[in-house]
Amino acid sequence: MVSSTKLLNRVLDDDRLLPAEPHTRQIARRLYDATCALPIVSPHGHCDAASLAEDQPFEDPAKELVTRDHYLLRMLYSQGVPMESLGVHPLGGGDAEDDGARIWRSFADHYHLFLGTPSKLWLDHTLSAVFGIDEPLRPESAAAVYEQMCARLGEEAFRPRTLFTQMRIEFLATTDHALDPLASHAALRQSGWRGRVVPTFRPDDVVDPDRPGFAANVAALGAATGCDTTTWKGYLEALRARRADFVAAGATASDHGHPSPLTVDLSTREAEGLFMRVLGPSRRAEDAELFRGLMLVQMAAMSMDDGLVLQLHAGAWRNHNPWLAQRFGPDMGADIPTPTGYVAALKPLLDRFGNEAGLTVVIYTLDESTYSRELAPLAGHYPALRLGPPWWFFDSPEGLRRFYRLVMETAGFANTVGFNDDARSLLTIPARHDAARRVNAGYLAELVAEHRLREDEAAVLAEELAYGLAARSFGVSP
Predict the structure, then answer these.
(1) CATH number for the domain harbouring residue 64
(2) pLDDT for 421-462, tens place per residue?
(3) Cα 252 to Cα 369: distance, rounded to the nearest angstrom
(4) What are phi and psi of 364, to 5 degrees?
């Protein structure tokens, strides 16, 4: 991994994302310089634990950086670039480009589409700071850039575990479904390697009746745990058992990708009846949403016992393009934000657990209109509630700035959890954290320039936003 400032300046401006006003920029530069080398805490992402367990060279760089990245796929698809040309294979078979050089060339031919977007910022940083490539990506440089990436990925210094250490990653959480056997995490622990890579319990496959194969998944949950998941009691026992497996593997959090933040608190009898309906033919139209809401409350109750942080990523209409999902599968960039309300939706959960200082519930939203009206006041009051950083469409420089301006005056910095990178590849994690630390420095520098903070106070907050809040919120450090 390359870190030469001289090299970076040929591709990336050293003052990128810092304020344009000279005095404020000088303050921001000092704040950024004090935080840029802090360890990385990555408590929510989608990297593959198997690559670290096996510690084999990364596959073709085009497939690693382009084919797996739905941020890039959605933009290219919107401009008529065939998914197959980017290495995405249709479900059930069908032709797709498998030659990495051709995938990369197709991507480079359309790289201009990403001008002014965070995706270009991240990838430019990755090419320069990680790969040490000393020229901008253009169609005419595509072949040379691709050859340099391939050569670097063949070096011992680019093995996943070595990069993990060089990137100063202190904690990396993957996202794993409830039925995952966690074999890669077990292999990592048994290897003796000291890097901290942990799973995150993502039970959507067994708590969301709208998921394909829900009933079969619940049956598989029973088979995996030895619990009778045909009964409500046995189903809850099975979920507790799986959570215990995740805790034993180092997990510090669960994560829930529900369409809405609805929470529902039912009596045991009512819950039993709803459970039987969602598993059987008598299911009502509203039952799936009610059951998801019920399970959020049940997950909070389980978190009171096992200590897992409960994360809720709500407000996405997932796979909005049915043709695309049917042809290529889910998570191809067709998730769309929806209007989302939190004050009423979270009340049943908060009525029961909101005053529990020992519980941490982290809320992420795709509805920015709720920041100042709902989420900041809620997090600024309830001890159990924290605000996650901007996510998906909004984990960007402007998204972070809007978040800070709409949230911090009401919620305060202490009721947020720092930064999550949501990265799909280990190679891109440093770029996302570097961009966030620059935005943090710029925002805090404005407060200093306006005499709303002293610079020493801003320095403490810059370190908190870059490292401390995430480390404490997700159990990385006390």
Answers:
(1) 1.10.2020.10
(2) 999 999 999 999 999 999 999 999 999 999 999 999 999 999
(3) 30
(4) -115, 140
